[in-house]
Structures are given as structure tokens and as C-alpha cells.
Amino acid sequence: MQSKKIENTEIANNGGDMAEIALALAKQQQSGQMLNKDLLPSKGKFYQNDIFVKKLSTIDIKNLATLTSDTMDGVINGILSHCVHGVNVNDILVGDKFWLIFYLRNLTYNDYPFAVKYKCENCKKSGMYKMTMKDVIVTYLKDDFSTSYTMDNGDEIEIGFPTVGNEVSQNQILKEPEKYIPSGEVDDSLLNIACYIKAINGKNISIARAYDYIINLDALSFTNFSNYMVDIDFGIKPYIEIDCECTNKVNVPLSLTPEYFMPKIKNEKE
Ligand SMILES: [Zn+2]
After folding, report:
1. SS3 assignment, position 53
2. Please, what is the average pLDDT of the chain?
3. How many angstroms separate the alpha carbon of residue 160 from the centre of ligand 1?
4. Are residues 46 and 134 in the same domain?
5. Ligand 1 centroid to residue 129 C-alpha, Å
């Protein structure tokens, strides 16, 4: 009886170890490879944990290849939550969001070049450029960035960069402004600026409250604050720059096309 008891315990232990190994393996496969956070437009300064990225799944690719303006936010946020681990999707900064989408596409296809057509306005030559991840132009968060800013009117502002979660709230306000904004009307770009204000004179405020603050701001404070925000913001540029033979730089818009997410990769066996 006694030996059987030990045997049972051993089996239980072995089983436990196996289960743990299987779990660790599954977790590793699920969480993918560690991302070098320095590559992010934010340089990862606002993410405390390590971030892991994994390749796009067939469902993700299908969703990206059939994007419309209506489905865009939902699809992109869904993909970020499948493929980026170590940070909650709602805490991903808007400035990092599209960089991550391009990064995931290139991780999935080993940076397979994407053919971009261009026409140079200077020498009138048109051509085809093979775009890779290195062509995505990144504006990084400045190293000496401080979260506190003093308005010309003397108010102390605590700056925070908008997250995917803030963006969801912002879209709710845009959809039904009468629910959140006393006047019932909302200006898209002013609301966008409001999303960068986390606290005023030490008091945390909501986006709707920050919007109210922005629309009632004096001209000088507003202008200086807007210019400051443009200066410190980070993200990717909505275009790539192609060097033409004539030394002119041709700007081509960066777009999320089906061909980008489902490239026609030649099979070497064919
Ligand atoms: Zn040219």
C-alpha cells in the first residue's frame, strides 16, 4: 500500500512537471519573440514589462486584406491584442500602433519587399520601388521629454500620450458628442489635442473635461501648447520617401492595402 502511495505521488509529480513544460512551451509559442522596445516610436518608455510579438495569423491577414474605414479600428486593435503580448492593447500608445502593424507584417513575411509605384515630378520618370521596414519613417519620442508643461496662463499640465483605450473613448465622444460635451458639438482635431492632457494643476481630468479646457483656452496658451505637442509627438510618417535618380525625393503615401498584407511571394520550388 505504501509503495503504491509513493508511486502515485511520483506520477502526480511527473504529470505536474509535464503539464508545466507543456504550458511553458505553449506560452512561448503564444507570446512569440521579444521585441526590442528601443525600435518603437515611444522607445518603449511607457511600457514597464517586456513586450513579445508574434506573426500574424491567417485570420489577421484576411482581416487586414479586407480593411475598410469602418472596420479599421476594430481589426487593428484585435490584431494588436493577438500578436503583441506583455502590454494590454488599451495601454498601447497611438503613436506606436501603426508602427507595430507594419512591424508585424514584416515579421510575418521576413520583410518581403513591397513594390511601390512612384512618379517623380522633377524629372518625370516613373518607377517601381521595393519598400521594406527600413523605409517606414519613424519620429521617436525625445529622450529629454518631460511630462510637465506650464501653459502661458500659468496652469501646470501633466502630459500623457494617448493610448488605444483613449482613442476608443475619443471615438465614443465623436459618435455621440451630445452625451459628453455641453455644447453637443465637437471638433475632431481639438479633441485630439485634449487627449494629451491628463491632469491640470495636479487634478486628473477626463477627455471631455480636457476638451472643455482646450476650447476655453486663450489664444496664446493654445497656440504655444499645440506647437509644443507637435514638436514632442512621435509615430510614423504617413508616407515614404523614395530617392529618385535625379536626386529629388519622391513622397509616396503609406497605405494599408490588401497587396501589402497578402504579398505575391514567389515560391522558389516553382
Ligand atoms: Zn526624378
Report:
1. strand
2. 88
3. 41
4. yes
5. 13
Question: How far, in Å, is the centroid of ligand 1 from the Cα of 244?
Answer: 5
Q: Quote the CA–CA distance of 250 and 166 in Å, as a whole number.
A: 34
Question: From CA 198, how far away is CA 166, in angstroms rounded?
Answer: 11
Q: pLDDT digits over 223-269, tens only? A: 999 999 988 999 999 999 999 999 999 999 998 888 899 888 776 65
Dist CA 22 CA 26 (whole Å): 6
Residue 126 CA to ligand 1 center (angstroms) comes to 8
Q: Are residues 136 and 100 in the same domain?
A: yes
* One domain for residues 38 and 129: yes
- The alpha carbon of 250 and the centre of ligand 1 are apart by a number of angstroms equal to 8
- What's the 114 CA to ligand 1 centre distance in angstroms? 20
Residue 4's pLDDT is what? 43
The 10 Å CB-count burial string (b at 16+, else e) for 26-43 is eeeeebbeebebeebbbb
Ligand 1 center to 116 CA (angstroms): 15
Which domain does 107 fall in, by range? Answer: 33-140+235-261
